[in-house]
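Summarise what follows for lecture notes:
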Amino acid sequence: MSGTLSITKRHASAIRHCVVALAFLCAGSVVAAAGIKRVELSAADCAARDLELVIMLEEWGDEDAASERLAAAGLTLMRAREACHQGRFREALALYDSVLLDRFAHIAR
């Protein structure tokens, strides 16, 4: 080969998800570190995170991920939606993040 870097669709998808996860974690760290003003969360925050994860899970399914992992992620997504519906936004976002972190922990292996 002539020294070029070849990135497959799977690798590009994994990189994109890592960047999204890093952005979520950094945003959370900045808010936590500021500690000056309590950030009010809303259903819109849940909806945005839900959309990201639904897209991620669809791509994950296309990669022939283990059905048990996809099922567990789907159940966690349902629990997050229920928490959001009940106004427990911080809990919902933590559940969404747990799916995201599990996904990237699996990629890193």
Summary: The mean pLDDT is 75.
